[in-house]
Amino acid sequence: MMVTVAQPLDFTLPAKLEAREPPEARGLRRDQVRLLVTAYGSDRIVHARFADLPDFLRAGDLLVANDSATLPAALTARRPDGNAIALHLSVRLPNQLWVVEPRKTEVVPGEVLDLPDGGTATLLTPHTGSQRLWLARLELPAPVLDYLHRWGRPIAYPYVRDAWPLEMYQTVYATVPGSAEMPSAGRAFSPNIIRRLTHKGVGFAMVTLHTGVSSLEDHEPPYEEPYDVPPKTAGAVQAAKTAGGRVIAVGTTVVRALESAVNEHGQVIASRGWTNLVITPERGVRVVDGLLTGFHEPKASHLAMLETIAGRPHLEKAYAAALDGGYLWHEFGDLHLLLP
Question: If both were cysteines, with which of 45, 65, 147, 337 could 250 make a disulfide (CB 3.0 to 4.6 Å apart)?
Fold first, then answer.
């Protein structure tokens, strides 16, 4: 499903605000990144550190995070003419099929790419609604997870300096392998932060949504991805709502999963499947009250989700504060907590 977001938020992102390495390489613990806290009900803006997160939440609030683990989903492939390209695996489908991205190159239907250790990727057809994603059949000499951990590497974009090991692209609570790229809004959590939140009475629940490759180049809307909202999480959401607590999503993937699991009565139910849901102001949100997220690219479709939750005027003020305050963008950057 292709959804066009009318007049998305646009701004100029200075190159100096792109996080080019993990915070650990900058001498910080992962929970020491900066945290911009903004309240869309009052337009209050507070500059903090992620380690201060428990101070902004209260007993009865519920954080919902994505436990999907990042795959080493970038492979080196060789075209029939012998030229090497990067092949990014995006979404796993049944019967050895994948949605893939041959990076920065034009390919044709039927082209067979050679992969390490005798593997092949046969490009079948362009993926619906995309100019850069393809449906491909992978034939590998080993189970896919074993193969990727032997031959793959984390997907990284040109703004990242150097190659970083897979653990730099994992959250501390990731348990279900499947994401092409890290659900990065949760990267700053540490066991200590989770303990402090629990001690304060803040709930912590999980969904799974395996993310595909991002859309930095084309600003495409999210496409169909697999998700799972288990019964325990659905129950925790309803209990928090009933008790007057706030449901705060850790990342845009969690918003998509929860909002995809809402029944006709506005309740989150246990649900699993595929979602192509795009959150826009026209569609609205029915479950999520707040959002912990990174900072998104100019005109990115995720900005429509933030606008849906917080409103355009507040979003403009928040991003102006982030730019003026020198916050860092991208998966290794700083975070934004949007609260009512």
Answer: 65
